[in-house]
């Protein structure tokens, strides 16, 4: 039975990420460069504005086409997103980061990747970076009953906040048997890939990875996120040096 689950997820992830967030396939509005991104509230979402640490990860004019996903600032120059948002790019020239207030960054490098965990760190190399909020990261597995998925919803034309719960499902990735992904009940749409899952204090507890009829919605576990961040380039605390 476990082999079937792992195989099902591997196939579902392949199908989902092959077409995830392709702007040519999803109807709706994607903001022009420099345009502020509004907050849109979905059913069950928290009230208030979307946090300013959220960003839109845009790829335009690449040989593979154009698409968009979501991400979040973890330091002043590092954005955490999912790996499949940047998979296949041979050059970062088509890659842009658009902030909630419309600020654009175009000098981007893919600083670190993990296809296994479907995570990527994008580093902004523009000479000047505006001050903005950074997402707080949970240290351990979260037991919070309520979670919120954050990310760009092109059908509503803004950053969306959708409430839900973790549902107990866990999956590995391909041949890897270690649990990498957790199932959750938050509504997600194409465009939200790479967006954070947060608890009621808006602390990071997962990163949205994939969604399909076979698996439902899946997010990378916080333990895997911490392990991924610990590789940069020493203890996680060294990430804070990116502020200066």
Structure description:
The protein is mainly beta and 244 residues long. It has one domain: Thrombin, subunit H (Beta Barrel). Helix content is 11%, strand content 40%. The protein has 2 helices and 16 strands. Strand 3 and strand 4 form a beta hairpin. The model is unreliable at 1-27 and 240-244 (pLDDT under 50).
Task: Provide a brief overview of the structure.
The protein has helices at 2-19, 222-229; strands at residues 39-41, 54-62, 65-73, 78-81, 95-99, 104-105, 108-114, 119-124, 136-137, 147-153, 158-164, 166-173, 176-184, 196-198, 203-212, 216-221. By secondary structure, the protein is mainly beta. The strands form 2 sheets. Strands 1, 9, 10, 11, 12, 13, 14, 15 and 16 form a 9-stranded mixed sheet that branches.
Order of helices and strands: HEEEEEEEEEEEEEEEEH
Structural class determined from secondary elements: mainly beta
In whole angstroms, the N-to-C terminal distance is 50 Å
Number of strands: 16
> What's the gyration radius in Å?
16 Å
Apparent shape: globular
CATH architect. name: Beta Barrel
- Number of DSSP helical runs: 2
Spans of at least 5 consecutive residues with low confidence: 1-27, 240-244
CATH class group? Mainly Beta
Sheet with the most strands? 9 strands, mixed
**Helix fraction by DSSP (H/I, runs of at least 4):** 10-25%
CATH topology: Thrombin, subunit H
DSSP strand (E) fraction?
Answer: 35-45%
Number of domains: 1
Q: What is the typical, i.e. mean, pLDDT?
A: 80
């Amino acid at each position: 039975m476990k082999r079937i689950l792992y195989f099902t997820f591997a196939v579902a992830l392949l199908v989902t990420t092959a077409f995830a967030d392709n702007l040519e396939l999803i109807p709706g509005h994607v903001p022009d460069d420099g345009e502020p991104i509004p907050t849109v509230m979905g059913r069950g979402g928290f009230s208030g504005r979307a946090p300013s640490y959220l960003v839109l990860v845009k790829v335009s004019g690449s040989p593979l086409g154009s698409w968009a996903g979501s991400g979040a600032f973890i330091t002043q120059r590092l954005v955490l997103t999912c790996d499949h948002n940047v998979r296949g790019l041979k050059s970062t020239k088509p890659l842009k980061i658009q902030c909630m207030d419309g600020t654009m960054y175009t000098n981007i490098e893919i600083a670190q990747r993990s296809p296994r965990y479907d995570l990527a760190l994008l580093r902004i190399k523009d000479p000047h970076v505006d001050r903005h909020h950074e997402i707080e990261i949970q240290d351990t597995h979260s037991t919070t009953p309520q979670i919120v998925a954050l990310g760009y919803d092109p059908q509503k034309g803004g950053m969306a906040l959708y409430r839900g719960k973790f549902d107990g499902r866990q999956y590995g990735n391909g041949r890897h048997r270690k649990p990498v992904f957790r199932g959750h009940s938050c509504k997600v749409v194409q465009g939200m890939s790479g967006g954070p899952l947060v608890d009621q204090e808006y602390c990071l507890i997962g990163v949205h990875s994939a969604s399909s009829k076979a698996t439902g919605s899946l997010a990378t576990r916080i333990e895997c996120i911490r392990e991924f961040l610990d590789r940069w380039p020493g203890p996680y605390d060294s990430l804070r040096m990116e502020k200066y």
